[in-house]
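Sat 14:20. Reprocessing the chain from the morning session after the first attempt stalled halfway. Input below, unchanged.
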Amino acid sequence: MQKPGEILEQIQRMASDMQNKVGDAIRNSPAQEIEKNVRAMMNQGFQKMDLVTREEFEVQSKVLAKTREKLEALEAKVTALEKSTT
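Finished this time. Tokens:
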């Protein structure tokens, strides 16, 4: 009869072997290749759509906000000048 420690070691070895085999099966499965191909196709589609990145959008939003501030300041000056000339 085996000791409890030996049984535990055997179970751990079997679990480790199973984990390695499952990992190998996943790495070698066609699912990973399919995912890679789908990502490539989606990237091509997005490039054809002429989309901007989130970073580019944020930069343009900041530029637009600054431009609006300047425009509002200029409008206020024009209004003040118009009042002073009348």
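Residues 1-51 form one domain.
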